[in-house]
Amino acid sequence: MKCSKCSALCADADAACYACGQPLGGLTSRAAQSTYRLAGVFALLGSGAGVFLAEAYAKREYIEGARILFAAVGIVVGVTLGFVVGWLTHRKGEA
Known about the structure:
59% helix, rod-shaped
């Protein structure tokens, strides 16, 4: 394989380029940036879904705390799903 930064020939088992030190086999900077954006979008969607779920399922006397809690859980789940989906769509070396 060739290094994406300096085009030096590297073995498939190498973790980094011997010439420039660039990590091999990971996401490119453009793919990483789009993965972070996708995770952010999923986090926003998760927080919105969490607030709506709190409205539907929480008791009236606990609604304010439930909104915050459900939104926080939605953000965590959304970021996790966003990173997984982004990683799966930007993997290198697939046919």
